[in-house]
Design brief:
The complex is a heterodimer of chains A (about 190) and B (about 170).
Chain A (H helix, E strand, L loop, with lengths): L1 H11 L12 H16 L6 E3 L6 H12 L5 E7 L5 E7 L3 E7 L8 H14 L5 E6 L5 H12 L8 E4 L6 E4 L5 E4 L6
Parallel strand pairs in A: 2-5, 5-8
Antiparallel strand pairs in A: 2-3, 3-4, 6-7
Chain B lengths: L1 H10 L10 H16 L18 E2 L9 E5 L3 E4 L2 E7 L2 E2 L13 H20 L8 E6 L5 H13 L4 E8 L2
The chains are: A alpha/beta (about 190), B alpha/beta (about 170).
Chain lengths: ~190, ~170
């Protein structure tokens, strides 16, 4: 019945406009206030720090490595002025292995360095620390690139495993050398 | 033409008109959604300044609280206060201690002040602990020689836990 009545009204033309304009002015006022506030707190570049959160087994192994005062294996990575790397691996006080990675086309050969580090990590899975010794002229950007290469594996790398001492299970990890120490800061 | 204007005048009898805000509200809604997405309550704020271009890193760790040290091509800033001025991106000899070539005296004083403040707070407030964390924001082109001096001086002032701020590759 009501429907019928409305129909009649439309026909008779008493309610000419069936649509109406929404008053958006208060909404606009709110947005004009909100936008400057949000602009103040907005970041257009995201800052991160170089560290890593890890699974428990891997974290435990890292803590052990950090607390181990009598380290058997120490890895030292030298960054030379001529953009070549020298990787020195010391086992205790006696044996010492040195790998030279020359520059490629006048640039740091980061791919070869990464491959070498993966190989070293496969050999010494419980070592997480690298002593970095950059030359004074090496730029900060290059140091960060090297740290990125050393910190973790890439998707195309072979898988790395750590054996949990308690359960004797192998745990897969992408972490290689998260502890980077600038060993020439003091007395270098 | 005049006929059209007359017809418009006849049809639009009212002297006031309603502004069509729909398109503008649409635009503002999109802007607000974008700003909300990039809203940050991060502990480290970068104040854009001349001579500070952070390197990119694949690291995704969120920044932590610590003493902010900015090493730009213009100089060294501790908590946004300039303590050392560089000339051509290099530390002047007068700022380096004569007996130790890696020791920057004014930087040490500024950091030592910060450390003393933090230790004084730690004495009064048991929940607060001085952990010697330092967040270094350095320009990507600066040589390691300059950064080494900053790190050495910071470690002398009791700040041994260095965090290097970088830009996320995301």
């Amino acid at each position: 019945m009501a429907f019928k009545r409305n129909k009649i009204r439309f026909k008779s033309g008493s309610d000419e406009e069936s649509t109406y304009d929404l008053d958006l002015s208060p909404m606009l006022a709110l947005m004009v206030t909100l936008i400057p506030i949000m602009l103040l707190a907005t970041v257009f570049v995201k800052v991160t720090i170089i560290e890593s959160a890890l699974p428990q087994v891997v974290q435990k192994a890292i803590e052990e490595d950090r607390n181990n005062k009598n380290k058997k294996i120490s890895i030292q990575l030298n960054m030379k002025k001529n953009k070549s790397f020298y990787l020195n691996i010391s086992k205790g006080k006696r044996s010492r292995k040195s790998i030279k990675i020359s520059s490629r086309g006048g640039q740091w050969d980061l791919n070869r360095l990464h491959t070498q580090l993966v190989t070293i990590k496969q050999k010494y899975p419980r070592t997480f620390r690298i002593d970095l010794v950059p030359a004074e002229s090496v730029s900060y950007e290059d140091i960060v690139k090297v740290i990125d290469e050393a910190r973790g594996t890439k998707s195309e790398d072979p898988k790395l495993y750590i054996r949990d001492k308690e359960s004797n299970k192998r745990v897969e990890t992408t972490v290689m050398f998260p502890d980077i120490i600038f060993s020439n800061v003091v007395g270098g | 033409m005049s006929r059209v204007v007359n017809a418009m005048k006849r049809n639009n009898k009212k002297s006031t008109f309603i502004l069509q805000l729909t398109a503008m509200v649409d635009m503002f809604t999109i802007i607000i959604v974008f700003l909300l997405k990039s809203y940050s309550t991060s502990a480290v704020n970068i104040t854009p300044q001349k001579g500070l271009d952070l390197p990119m890193s694949s690291s995704y760790t969120s920044p932590v609280e610590g003493v902010k040290v900015v090493v730009s091509k213009m100089g060294i800033f501790v908590q946004d206060r300039q303590v050392i001025t560089f000339e051509n991106g290099k530390i002047l000899n007068r700022d380096i201690a004569s007996e130790d070539s890696d020791f920057i005296s004014d930087l040490f004083k500024a950091l030592n002040n910060e450390a003393e403040k933090a230790r004084a707070i730690a004495e009064k407030n048991e929940e607060y602990k001085f952990d010697g964390k330092i967040i270094m924001q350095a320009d990507k082109e600066l040589p390691y020689g300059v950064l080494k001096k900053v790190m050495y001086t910071a470690s002398m002032a009791g700040y041994a836990d260095l965090k290097m701020a970088t830009l996320s590759m995301e």
